[in-house]
Amino acid sequence: MKSLIVANWKMNPLSQKAASQLFDSLKRGLKNVRKTEVVVCPPFVYLSGNRLTSFKLGAQDCFWQDKGAFTGEISPQMLKDLGVRYVILGHSERRQVMGEADEMVNKKIKEVLRLKLWPIVCVGETAQERKKGETFQVLKREIKEGFKNVPKSQMSKVVIAYEPIWAIGTGNPCLADDALTAVLFIRKVISQIFGMALAKKIRILYGGSANSQNAGDYLNQEGINGLLVGGASLKPKEFLKIARG
Ligand code: PEP
């Protein structure tokens, strides 16, 4: 199975021109990359006009209904129309800054899957939860609530990203062994809900201060299927090194 490398640009860069330059370097640099599947998730405003390139397009969020009076929201149907395949859902910045609860993440997952898009669902504990020994409890709750009533038949499109919140944007990545332990636990919870076959197959990524120096530590672990990359995805040389696998 190819590793999946996802770039999360977050709320960057600040101009259309800078976004085009970033896209151009990636298009050039990823032309002959075969070892990995690359997904780029820019802010919504830069999604248009980037179909059929050497990477797939992803969005960083969407709403849980496909049309209507929801001022400021973006419909998954609109994303689909732009050629977007993946949608990051439940990122910790949305959970913590925007107050997104498990229930909202669940509604979004269901709508995205209904429209045959591929959700990348983020789960992970805070530093305090980890200190209190609650990591598994948090992961179990986020998965159980997030995937509540999701039909098993749709689960093959799902990607899960284990993103310990204390490791995101801090330069303090999770040790690869600890990331693997969390990923194996996530597979166990998935197997309890959806069965062993899916738990073996589902793609689970690691995210949190990943860079070109440490990427191999995660990608070499059997059971970790790729990376969700924030800060390092804004530096083309750095991201291309990671994406080349
Ligand atoms: C992220 O935003 O999902 C992320 C992992 O960020 P960073 O790589 O900057 O820690």
Task: Please characterize this protein's 3D structure.
The chain is an alpha/beta fold and 245 residues long. The chain has one domain (3-12, 56-66, 83-244): TIM Barrel, CATH 3.20.20.70. 38% of the residues lie in helices and 16% in strands. The chain contains ten helices and eight strands. It has helices spanning 16-29, 76-81, 92-97, 102-114, 127-131, 135-146, 176-194, 196-201, 215-219, 236-243, and strands spanning 3-8, 36-41, 56-59, 86-89, 118-123, 159-162, 203-207, 226-229. The protein has an eight-stranded parallel barrel, surrounded by four helices. Helix 1 (16-29) links the parallel strand 1 (3-8) and strand 2 (36-41). Helix 4 (102-114) crosses helix 6 and helix 6 (135-146) packs across helix 7 (176-194). The chain is globular and about 45 Å long. The two termini are 13 Å apart. Residues 8, 10, 163, 168-169, 207-210, 228-232 line the site of phosphoenolpyruvate (PEP).
